[in-house]
Amino acid sequence: MKNVRFLVLFGAFALSFISCNREKRPERTDTTTSGEAEIFCDDCFIPLMREEKVVFEGLNVAAQIKLTATNEKEALNALFSDSVRLIVAARDLTFKEKEMLRAKKLMPRSTKVAIDGVALIINPSNKDSLITVDDFKRILDGKLTSWKQLNPASRLGSIKVVFDNAGSSTVRYVQDSVTKGKIKSPNAFACKNNQEVLEYVSKTPNSLGIIGLNWLNNPLDTAEFSFTDRVRVMSVSPFLEAREDNSYLPYPAYLILKKYPFYRDVYMIISDAPGYLPSGFMNFVAGEKGQRLALKLGLVPANSPMRLVQIHE
User: Fold this and answer.
1) Which of 189, 195, 193, 139 is nearest to 169 (CA)?
2) Residue 269 in contact with residue 87, Cβ under 8 Å?
3) Residue spans per domain, the chain
4) Tens of pLDDT, residues 220-271
5) 84 contacts: CB under 8 Å, gap ≥ 6
6) pLDDT by residue (tens digit) across 226-236?
7) Which of 63-77, 210-224, 240-254 has the lowest mean pLDDT?
8) Is the pLDDT of residue 42 over 90?
9) 117-263 domain in CATH 3.40.190.10?
10) What is the SS3 assignment for 265?
11) pLDDT at 17 > cutoff 80
12) Mapping DSSP to helix (H, G, I), strand (E, B) and coil, where does residue 60 land?
């Protein structure tokens, strides 16, 4: 009889404990089109995600997206620590990283949403708008340190190389795909974000900015793809000598055809369960309306077919 009474009391205590825990952890009320969600986004892709957020919230008035600009390293760290469930980065998760999230009972998934270009920008007064991949690498390696080495007629002096952020996807991309190691230029430094790179290059004649293509779109141009007139965008050649006929700007067509050499994929990475707002927003960006916005902002949509038209003068 005592044992039965003990089991009854223990059962009542257990139910009470579970009930208290449930009170401390209220059930989620967000859906794919309502509620609140926070997203950490690499600063390179903030202009795109701002547009996506505005349109998504306009179509879903009960949804509120908090967009936090950061660098890629901090966005990934926030995902791994489970402080945020959706991020935008310029790479996918590795198998090991996905397993690490699964060990925390999370559900990692990723969707490629665009193809982006890494653009080289110079001051409008700089006439040296052509560069080879090899010369760009030599600049980053510290072997070319002045504009005169690229063009004997130049009077601009040393090449000031400026990046958006030390922990950004742009720095990682350059180290992985261009220098194959550390950036050794004595004149290279990092700002806080892409906006600061634009500001610096627009005011500094001897600067060379490395920036996400997403920041260069001209919002006033609705007829064709063009860049902001605050800076000049360099044409890049994969050949030994850069000429007008073998150098390419980071236009969407040249990104698709891989003629412009500096391109990368843009991913939305989620660790949340399906059926909630982070999933709803990611599906929107990867869907038809979201992909059209990516094209409008000068990127290549990853999940929407594009038709290339060759125009002869």
Assistant:
1) 193
2) yes
3) 35-115+265-301, 117-263
4) 554 456 678 889 999 999 999 999 999 999 999 999 999 999 999 999 999 9
5) 38, 39, 40, 68, 75, 78
6) 678 889 999 99
7) 210-224
8) yes
9) yes
10) strand
11) no
12) coil
Q: What is the pLDDT of residue 307?
A: 54
| Burial class of residue 128 in the structure, from the number of CB atoms within 10 Å of its CB (0-12 exposed, 13-18 middle, 19+ buried) | middle
Name every residue whose Cβ is closer than 8 Å to that of residue 208 and which is 6 or more positions away in sequence: 120, 121, 122, 139, 159, 160, 161, 162, 201
Percent of the chain with pLDDT over 90: 78
Q: What is the pLDDT of residue 229?
A: 83
Quote the DSSP letter at residue 153: T
Q: Which residues touch 34 (CB under 8 Å, ≥6 apart)? A: 60, 62, 63, 277
Pairs from 149-154 (Cβ < 8 Å, separation ≥ 24): 154/128
Contact partners, residue 222, CB within 8 Å, separation at least 6: none
Whose tokens are 């990475």? That residue is 269
Closest of 15, 240, 258, 234 to residue 130, by C-alpha: 234
Tokens of 208: 């060379």
Residue type, 64: Q
109-143: per-residue pLDDT in tens? 999 999 999 999 999 999 889 999 999 999 999 99
Domains 35-115+265-301 and 117-263 share a fold: yes
CATH of 35-115+265-301, one of 3.40.50.1980, 3.40.190.10, 3.60.15.10, 3.40.50.1000: 3.40.190.10
